[in-house]
Amino acid sequence: DRYINQGEILAVTCSIFHEKNNGPNTVVWYQGAARLDYDSPRGGIALQTEKTATKTVSKVMLSNVTPRDSGKYTCRPDTGGYASVDVHVKTGDHGPSPVQMSGYNASINATQFIHFVFLLSGFTHVAIILLVLR
Q1: Which of 20, 75, 100, 102 has its CA 20 to 30 A from that of 85?
Q2: Residue 100 and residue 2 in contact, taking contact as beta carbons nearer than 8 Å
Q3: d(CA 80, CA 51)
């Protein structure tokens, strides 16, 4: 679980490590069961994907978050697997959120791992790393 203050910018990053030139063509983002897209009615959503020979990094950013933005954020590369993080938007001014980290998550399967990083410095950034060995 990760926490962010209302009104901040949420950035969730999914890093997918793969064999050389065998990465995903697309990475789809979800909040719960709803697909996130930059032209969704919510507005304020930006998507970015960068690819190298052995790593694909996809990021979704939401501006001015509200409690409605709380939920499970999931990245799903078209090569299979997924990684998720639960985000909770706090209301009111409770001061800065602490930096939070958790590591390996064995719930995906033996060939994948997830690494979550939560940073706060003017905006909140959550990173999800998905390793796919084929």
Answers
A1: 20
A2: yes
A3: 17
What distance in Å separates the CA atoms of residue 57 and residue 61, rounded to the nearest whole number?
A: 13
Confidence (pTM)? 0.72
d(C-alpha 7, C-alpha 25), whole Å: 33
Q: Please give the Cα distance from 27 to 123 (Å, whole number).
A: 23
C-alpha span between 86 and 70 (Å, rounded): 8
* pLDDT tens sequence across 74-133: 999 999 999 999 999 999 755 444 433 333 332 332 233 333 333 333 344 555 665 555
Indicate left, alpha or beta for 61 from its phi (over 0: left) and psi (-120 to 50: alpha). beta
CA distances from 65 to 38, 45, 120, 124, 128 (A): 15, 10, 14, 10, 19
Please, are residues 116 and 85 in contact by the beta-carbon 8 Å criterion? Answer: yes
Instruction: Measure the CA–CA gap between 25 and 2, rounded to whole angstroms.
Output: 28
